[in-house]
Amino acid sequence: MRIPLSWLREYTQLPADATAEDLLADLVKVGLEEEDVHGFELTGPIVVGKVLEKTPEEHSNGKTINWCRVQVVPDGQTQTLEGKGIDPSGVQGVVCGAHNFEVGDKVIVTLPGAVLPGNFKISARKTYGHTSAGMIASESELGLGEGHDGIVVLSEWGLDPEIGTDVLELLHLDDEAAEINVTPDRGYVLSIRGAAREYAHATGTEFTDPACAIQVPAANDSGWSVRIDDTAPIHGQPGATRFVARRVDAIDPKATTPSWMSARLRLAGIRPLSLPVDISNYVMLELGQPLHFYDAEKLRGQIVVRRAHEGETLETLDGKTRKLHVEDLLITDDSGAIGMAGVMGGLSTEVSDTTTSILIESANFDTVSVSRTQRRHRLPSEASKRNTRGVDWHVADKAAQRAAELLVELAGGTMGEGVTDVGEPPVVPTVRLRADYPSQLVGYDYTEEQVNQVLVDLGGHVSQQRDDTDGTTIFVVTPPSWRTDLNIPEDLVEEVARLVGYSHIPATLPVPPPGRGLTKAQRMRRQIADALAGAGLIETLSYPFVSEAQNKTFGSPNEETAAAQRMVKLANPISAEFGWLRTTILPGLLETARRNVSRGFRDIAVYESGKVFLPSATIGSPEIPPLGVRPTDEVLAELEVGIPAQPHRLAAVFTGHDSAPGPGHTPRVYDWQDPIGAALDIADVAGVDLTIRQGAHHSFHPGRVAELVVDGIVIGYAGELLPKLLEDWDLPVRTAAMELNLDALIAAAPNVVEAHPVVTYPATYQDVALVVDHQVVAADVQQTLQQAAGDLLEHIGLFDVYTGAGIDEGKKSLAYNLRFRATDRTLTADEASQARLAAIAAAETEHGAVLR
């Protein structure tokens, strides 16, 4: 909200020398956040001049300019201004390219030394063979409008000022405005009336309510017929509670907006358009009541306020035809819809430049209804901003009368005798406040007198009672009509704290309650993230919004389960393409990798840990009550059950090379080993035995994908991604990835990871190479060897897979390294060999292995 200072002074005791910064400093005391200071970017000598001479001159560039002599001081006086280019005689020589003026016209002259918007400095300069000492200004050059051809002729504005008059003062361009941020619960401050009231609260000065000065005649039967017919109120509240209508005839359609009103509107952030529109906006800013003007000659019959019918449409003032929702509250006549209540009017009854009769609408609409309509149709406006926050019910008739009086005064209209005022005032609930409650809640010892004074200053009705048990005073408060936000005792406590002063509230640091530290899952997630970062991977964060196809591609291991996969669909997605919550983290990671590869970063190892969303068969409840009504316990239980499971997943993507090239060093290309290695590192940190075995996943390369298994349960997959899929993502064909269920891994982890004792006895190393059928899984052979070798086997690892010369077709050679060690003695070679032979024998029995 922008507050022009000259406007505010009409209703408060704002000092004449106070600046916008001073006003902001005062309003901050009552909780209004300061935003900015606005003014007209005009300084220096800008005066009224009279054209004495106008000599057209044609030039070689084909342009005709006017060499003018302009008088800028009154007759019989001399020039008092000094400076380079200022003619002491008071007659300035000016070159002007406009032609819409004549000798004798009074115009606006910017003299040397003036500065116009955009830091455009006026000085004497040679042009077209003359020294032009100033400029005859247009509206756009003064920052007063756009699209206006020619310079300002003051007689066309209805002005005949004395020559030499200061234009800044004449057109009220010496004013400035303070801009404040108004929170949604204090909509009454979106007006000069409300801002003036708050200034009085902040400074303890007097406030003159502009609404009190407006005398309104009683409603009668001569007014325009209006009926409120809201047959489908939402959340139990009627859409309209009051509708005031006044008619003004014989309006001069050529009447222009006076400069004082135009200047105030511009400072308030509203562009002047035409006198009727400007009056409507001016009254809205002054009193906080949005208005709408109809061309009375275009209206057809009785006005009815009702909900929209199914399939009904309305062409709004912006020229768009909008399909209406049955919840939309409409203003209608016999021709149909003529406006969306509290949001925007219809084009069919628009006030135009030929309108001579206006019907003024000043109404009070339900905030929820207006809010839903303006959001549904994406029509935010200054009017809907106020209607969605709540408007003073008792000011509607005052605003209509004020607008009618301005139309009579400024447009020469005739106010009709008819006064329409239909509707019922809302029931204002009383609020009971114990005198000691503000002190208990805020932590500052407020006196009973302070609490009482604040409640009285708010403007409502205050009475007192006594608590029979302890004698404490209880204030019974009926909030004023403009404070629709005061509904519970805590609202009144906030007002006490605000108006007595936030500075009185002591600053006390809260003492945090003792906690038990991180949970096991939190601690392990941090340790795992640190381990991956230490291994050279970079953590990233992506949006949880994906497409349906991406979920089906990466969220299930095969196409059959992917087709049946359940997903959470977003009701209001950021993008129609990404309208689902993720069931897998890989799409976001691959998008991160793709974006980096496209920008020239080819060697990438990234990971992400986050939640996925796995809904059950039931999502939500079919019986959702309207706003303002508490759901039943059964509905709440259904909603609770319908919340999707949200396990933590961890995924990693590798593409490019594992290091940068250098002298004597050739980097290795990332392959299937890297995501498997990352999974093993994670399991090692968690203290979990992770089994790697060959698997299948429809988004991974066949034969280059492994299942990640814990306690016989598959918790993830790792390997190289399918080349065709990588082609669609514009990623290198050897891109590898891994994703696992982090919650399942942590659940299998012991509470305490015990370190094995360091054995000081030497180890014995032996190798074994076994020939098996090609389809035998190396991990299965390794597990058999490990179990059969006994307790002396300390470590086993696969170090070679060979096919070729010496190996029959359909066979492969698997070479393992075995490390034996005893914890209590030096192991002999015979003991190690016996364990090795036992392992070989088991492999022969289980897998048909033959010692190579």
TrEMBL record:
It is found in: Cytoplasm. SMART domains: B3_4, B5, FDX-ACB. Binds 2 magnesium ions per tetramer. Keywords: Aminoacyl-tRNA synthetase, ATP-binding, Cytoplasm, Ligase, Magnesium, Metal-binding, Nucleotide-binding, Protein biosynthesis, RNA-binding, tRNA-binding. The gene is pheT. InterPro entries: aa-tRNA-synth_II/BPL/LPL, B3/B4_tRNA-bd, DNA-bd_dom_put_sf, Fdx_antiC-bd, Fdx_antiC-bd_sf, NA-bd_OB-fold, Phe-tRNA-ligase_IIc_bsu, Phe-tRNA-ligase_IIc_bsu_bact. CDD domains: PheRS_beta_core, tRNA_bind_bactPheRS. It catalyses: tRNA(Phe) + L-phenylalanine + ATP = L-phenylalanyl-tRNA(Phe) + AMP + diphosphate + H(+). This is Phenylalanine--tRNA ligase beta subunit. PANTHER family: PHENYLALANINE--TRNA LIGASE BETA SUBUNIT, PHENYLALANYL-TRNA SYNTHETASE BETA CHAIN AND LEUCINE-RICH REPEAT-CONTAINING PROTEIN 47. It comes from Enteractinococcus helveticum. Residues 426-507 form the B5 domain. Its EC number is 6.1.1.20. GO terms for cellular component: phenylalanine-tRNA ligase complex. Belongs to the phenylalanyl-tRNA synthetase beta subunit family. Type 1 subfamily. The keyword Metal-binding applies. Mg(2+) binds at residues 485, 491, 494-495. It is an enzyme of class 6 (ligase). NCBIfam families: pheT_bact.
